Amino acid sequence: MTxxxxxxxxxxxxxxxxxxxxxxxxAGIGQISNEPNKEKNFVVVNDSxxxxxxxxxxxxxTQTRDDIGILLINQHVAxxxxxxxxTFTNPFxxxxxxxxxxxxxxxxxxxxxxxxxxxxxx
Length: 122
Known about the structure:
The protein has helices spanning 18-27, 51-64, 75-78, 82-87, 111-119, and strands at 11-16, 42-44, 68-74, 94-98.
């Protein structure tokens, strides 16, 4: 069922390390706008990025913006704001945790897989 508010959700957003963001931008997902609060759809995370900055970016992509359909986030970045990701229950945007070059993917940490296991009683 498509509602009027979900029709605009046509963009991917990415929160990740420099290599991940570079790859995604080369693949063509980058969007930069002059519209307030919709300037860009990606956040480069490095060692100096604070948890507060991550939380603000997550809130921007998931609650403020109405054009984001999927949020891709490196799993090691998601670990820093795990409480926000685990408590996010809205259907849009879908939040998908992805691996990075330096941090392998751990299915035990993935919030989507944990929810699926709970549904099946595992």
